[in-house]
Amino acid sequence: MTGFKEHRIQVNQLLNVIPESLLANLSTTTKVDHYAKVLHGKKMFYLLLYGIVENEKLSQRTLEDTFNDPVFKLLFDLDKEETIRRSSISERLAKIDSSYFKQIYECIYEQFSKYYKETDRHKYNLVRVDSSMVSETVGKLAEGLSNSGKKAIKYSAAFDGILPCDIQTFTSSSYSSEDIALPEVVLSHVKKEKSHQNIYVLDRGLQSARTMKSFSDDAIRFICRAKENRKYEELESLLTSEQDRDLGDSMLMKDAKIKLYTGTPIKNKRGNTHYREELVEAAFRLVVIKSKEHHEQQYWFLTNDFRLTAKEVAQAYRRRWDIEVFFRFIKQELHVSHLVSLNKNGIEVMMYMTLIVAMLILIYKKANSIGYKTAKRRFSMEVRNLAIALIVSQCGGNPDLMFKT
Questions:
Q1: Contact 302, 317 (CB under 8 A)
Q2: Could you please report the per-residue DSSP string of 209-231?
C-alpha cells in the first residue's frame, strides 16, 4: 500500500492510463526516435513527467541529475548504465518531434474526459478560453512577442472546467493581439469536436465584430465581455415586463438584439489609412448587468446565443474564472513561469508535458476531493512511495510491511 487509504484513486492507477503500447506506437508513427542514441521519445516522456512532479524548479541541470538517478531508472524500468549530460537534453528538446507529446496529451485528455463528461459537465458545455504570458530577457529568448523590454511566450488555452482541452503556443508578434490568438484556439478546438454543443466563454480580449460574425456563420456559440462604450445599433429589446431583473448580487439593465459597428480601413490618395465606421451584417445579443454593491460598475456581455436567459449568460461568464485558476495552478505548482528550453520546439514539448502532468493531478484532485496544493503534494509523495516500494522489492523485501496501515 503506497497511497493514502482514504483516496478513491491512487497515482499508480493514473499512470496506468499511459500504456507502453501508446508510447511505442507513437514512437513509430511520429519517427520521434530517429537519430536518437539514448534519449528516445519514451525516455524523454518519463524524464519530463518525473522531473515536473519531483522538482520545485525544473531546469536542464535538474533533468540531467534526474536521468542519472538510479531511483528514476528503477521506477520506469530504464537501463541503469545509461547516463546523459545537460547539453544532450538541450539539443533533444530543440529537435525532438513535439507532435509525439501532443498526441499523448490528446489521448490522455480523451480518456479522462470520458470519465467525467456524462456526470460532471454543466447543463451547457462551457469552454473557457484565455491566454497567459511568460517573459524572458531579450538576449535569452531569440523568438518571442515584445513585452516591456523583454520577449514573451503566449500560451492560449481552452479549459472545459476540469481539464485543459486545447493549447496553442505563440511566439510571433502578430499574436500579441488577443483578437488573433483567441479565435485560433477556438477554431482548433471546434475541429476536434465537429458536432459540439459548446459555448466558448472569453474575456475582453475578443472585440473584433468580424470574428464574432465568423463564429456565428460557423455556428460557434460564444459569450464575451464587451467594452462599456462599445458602439452598436439596437434592433429590438428582449426585455419583457414579466422578466425578473433581479440577478442576486446584480440587476439586469438591458437585454437587446443589436448590430455592432466596426472600423473598415480605407487608404486615401496620400497612402494614409483611416477607418470608416460601418455596421456588421450579423445580429448579436447585448446583456448589461449592474452591480448592486458597486452601483457605478456595469458589465456588458456579447453573445450570439438567444436561447439562454440573461441570468444564464451572466453565470456562464462568471465560470470563465476557472481558467484563471488553472493558469495560476500550472504557474505556481508546475512552474510554467520558468522556461526550461528557450527554443520554440522545446517550449511546446514542455507545455504539452506540463498539461499531461496537470491532467493527472487534476483528476487525482477531483476524484479524491482535495485542493490544488494538497493534490500536487500528495501526488509527488505517492510517486516517491512507488519508487521506495520498488527498491524494497528489488532488495528482496516486502513493501507491504513498510506501507502497512
A1: no
A2: HHHHHHHHHTT-EEEEEEPTT--
Backbone angles phi, psi at 203, to 5 degrees: -85, -160
Dihedral angle at the C-alpha atoms of 250, 251, 253, 257, nearest 10 degrees? 80
**What confidence tens digit (pLDDT) does each residue in 216-243 have?**
999 999 999 999 989 999 999 999 877 7
Residue 342: pLDDT band (50, 70, 90) is confident
Q: Tell me the per-residue pLDDT of 277-318, one tens digit each, with 9 for 90 and over.
A: 899 999 999 999 999 888 788 999 999 999 999 999 999 999
What whole-number distance in Å separates Cα of residue 162 and Cα of residue 29? 30
Q: Residue 169 corresponds to which amino acid?
A: T
- d(Cα 353, Cα 189) in Å, to the nearest integer? 19
Please answer whether residues 26 and 104 qualify as being in contact, where contact means their C-beta atoms are separated by less than 8 angstroms: yes
C-alpha cell at 173: 508578434
Q: 260: which strand partners?
A: 232
In this structure, what DSSP letter does residue 33 have?
T
Q: What separation in angstroms does the CA of 99 have from each of 30, 91, 126, 348, 358?
A: 7, 17, 27, 9, 18
Is 46 buried (19+), middle (13-18) or exposed (0-12) by CB count in 10 A?
Answer: buried
Taking alpha carbons only, the member of 139, 136, 157 closest to residue 147 is 136
Q: In one letter, which amino acid is 33? A: D
d(CA 243, CA 203): 27
pLDDT for 50-92, tens place per residue? Answer: 999 998 889 999 999 999 999 898 888 888 888 999 999 999 9
The pLDDT confidence band at residue 137, using thresholds 50, 70 and 90, is low
In terms of Cα–Cα distance, which of 321, 286, 315, 312 is closest to 301?
286
Which of 129, 115, 111 minimizes the C-alpha distance to 322?
A: 129
Average confidence (pLDDT) over 334-343: 89
Length of the chain: 405
Q: What is the pLDDT, as a whole number, of residue 386? A: 87
Question: b/e string for 326-346 if b means 16 or more Cβ within 10 A?
Answer: bbebbbebbbbeebbbbbbeb
Place of cell 506506437: 25
Give strand pairing partners of 237: 256
For 169, how many CA atoms within 13 A lie in the half-sphere containing its CB? 22
